[in-house]
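task queued by scheduler; priority normal; single chain, no ligands, no partner chains; default sampling; output format set to structure tokens
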Amino acid sequence: MKADPGFRVHSFFYKLLVGFLALTGLAQMPIFKRYYISDVPGLGWLADYYLTHKLHYALAAGLLFLMAFMTARWFRQWAGSFRLSVSGLVRLCILAGVVITGALRMYKNQPGVSYSPEATMIIDWTHLGLVILLGLAALVFMFFGRKSYAVAVGNEQGPASTRKKGEV
């Protein structure tokens, strides 16, 4: 599939959003202050829980917008010509789990909403575990050359094996 001009931009923003979501998510735990990472010049903001919390929410909203945009584009332009690859399906399922557990955590943070300590711990650990799994899946698929999320219908090898430079 020929890369349309916006595809690289979407990919760049996806990677940027996920990277900063991981950073601000880790900042919700006091590890940056505890291990003196926030003492490094320019990284002091990582120890500010409220700032990183608000940033995490804003970045999550950006990721949800990008996901909705790409989903609409999938159904409007690509659904007949492409199907999800195995790597795309795996990463999509993991990302859906991250979004669902993040939404449950966000709901728990609303005034008047309370989960049991066990439920809170399960949601938090599941969210963190799925984020780690998403990163590991991306590394594994990158290592084995299965980076593409979609393959052309009828092309079982996927676009990565047949594409030229500048194509997606």
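post-processing summary
- The CA atoms of residues 29 and 49 lie 8 Å apart.
- The chain is about 65% helix and 5% strand.
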